[in-house]
Amino acid sequence: MSAFEEAERELVERTAFARAGAARQVPRYDHGSRVPGWDQAADLDKDPAEIPDPDTTPVPDDLRAEIEAHMANYPDRRSATLPALAAAQRVHGWCSPEAIDQVACVMRVTPAYLASVATFYDMLETTPVGRHSVYVCTNISCSLCGADELYAAIRAAAGEDTEFNVRAFECLGACDIAPMASVDGVYVGPLSVEDVPQLLDDVRAGRPVLPDKQLARRLVADPRANSREFPLHPIEAGAAAGSVEGELERRS
Amino acid sequence: MTEPLLFADIDEPGLNTLDVYARRGGYESLRKALTSTPEAVLHELEASGLRGRGGAGFAMGKKVSFLPKGSMDKYLVCNADESEPGTFKDRELMQKCPHMLIEGIVIASYAAGASRSFIYIRGEYQLQADMLDAALVEARNAGYVGENILGSGHSLSLVVHRGAGAYICGEETGLLDSLEGKRGNPRLKPPFPANQGLYQGPTLINNVETLSTVPTIIRIGGEKYAKLGVETSTGTKLVSVSGHVQRPGNYEIELGIPSREIIYGLAGGPPEGRQVKCWFPGGSSSPVLTAEELDVPYDFNSLAQAGTMLGSGAIIVVDDSTPILDVALKVAKFYAHESCGKCTPCREGTNWTVKVLQRIEDGQATPMDLDIMASVQEHIIGNCLCVLGDAMAMPIGSMIAKFRDEFEVHIESRQLSPVGASRALEVAGA
């Protein structure tokens, strides 16, 4: 086993335990870099990764159907890469080697191709993470309104709870409710440090998160936009991050 | 301003459904457009003078006319990746009035001769993507999207494509690569997307707000639309105001009004007892302006003359309670994180700018570092495939130029003891 493989294995083992909170680590060569040194040849004996064999790669039926539906949307099946990886992540919790193999098997591309894509995007997790994502926006507008303190408070309150994947995120496009967070895809704000225990409790209990502070509820700020008074948008259980079917049902 | 165009009664319950949208006259513009020729629709768009609302401000009609004629596969891509820090206008439109965007896309595709279209929406906008998906099902069932739309012979497929979190995918060629299922690395231009874009085919790329304006233009006519705003910046614009203001949010303004009217009149200005220190007029990529420049008219050309840009229409206000170093560091860190790494000046330039700013923060910098940092910015601008690097270099460069004194005070004071540091800042009034 090469030093790199050893480091990689150790890392996988380590991250499986200490996930939330630990700084994201990458496997490194002896000289500290992620790429081989100039005097180290690539491992030419290593077999190239192949497209996984459908016979030996079981894929859950739902996942296969979803990926195939995405592929049918585009002239080139590779366009379905992002939706397919997102679907696999919903099933597996993260873009694990197993998840990537399954997507590769259905899409008929190499796992390496998918891994190269998965590592590029912030919302695709390439290490195991907690089930509930809490993205705290810490970009300029939110940080002017106290987002850094908010992020620290959420980190501290979530502590070692491995259910949570608390991350500082780049601008989430909701500076009107700064400082804000996206909790399992639901935008809430403006948040204060006092809201943090309630926020985490709501997630743990499976309730809608801070219903009064959800973005979906807000009216536009421009006073000239609405010619008359309109009610606040209702928040139903799970409605904010609801499925398309649910949304259509509500409309009918 | 007379009447809001995009935000008119936007909070009416059920506006996201086809029923309410159609009752309010929705899809009438599409009917009108389909009864005339694509050339006539293009003429209206050109006559409107509508400039792209995503950041670059390129004339929309002209962009459509750049697409080659002929029967090849042509594509229309709606850029809904809205990730410029401070921008949240498209979110409001997609969430509350998704049919307006869909109608605009179908009309624009008719003018451009495109038969396939995509909405590339950032992955974080889950609610908005769900709203669009549901609206799309309704529009398809009603025959506004699909084969032979309303018997006109024009066909269009439309897919809502969700991104996965990358600022660079808002750059048009990075977006195209991402839509093709790759890492979102920008491409060399030329060839421009109008000639070789998605799947190497001619591609029209427009922002959500631009396309959402199209139904209005067809309804009232291009020439009438052009009477709104000022000569080189026609129409109304959604501005997102955030940061240190009392009423942050989206406002629809007529282009050309004084910026002060937006920041103080609409958004209420900074909190009691505080003053505007600087403000970004068009997202965090735009060079900052100071309190003395609050009377600049808010339109494309006036802001360009003031040495900055209208960008995406995102005004971020910073008041005098925040050190300029904090702002610079926040901005630089963002671009360093989001640089895709393809071009050296951007990848290294953003990285080193963060290091130098951190050095100032840590009290290990010398005044010479400011000159080094300024020269790094100069060497980024114009030297990369896309403008992500420029988007850091321009605001950082403007901060060094306009707040050099404060940076120098920081450099000196941070080298002293913590107590001395705060005193030196007090003396300098920073």
Describe this structure in words.
The complex is a heterodimer of chains A (252) and B (430). Chain A is globular, with a radius of gyration of 22 Å. The longest helix of chain A is centred in the first third of the chain and has 15 residues, at 3-17. In chain A, strand 3 and strand 4 (186-188) form a beta hairpin. Chain A is built from nine helices and four strands; from the N terminus they run αααααβααβββαα. In chain A, helix 2 runs antiparallel to helix 3 (81-92), helix 2 (61-71) packs across helix 4 and helix 3 (81-92) packs across helix 4. Helix content of chain A is 37%, strand content 7%. Chain A is α+β, with helices and mostly antiparallel strands. Chain B has 430 residues and is an alpha/beta fold. Helices cover 45% and strands 13% of the residues of chain B. In chain B, strand 2, helix 7 and strand 3 form a beta-alpha-beta unit. In chain B, helix 5 packs across helix 6 (98-112). At the A-B interface, helix 3, helix 6 and helix 9 of A face helix 5, helix 7, strand 3, strand 7 and strand 8 of B.
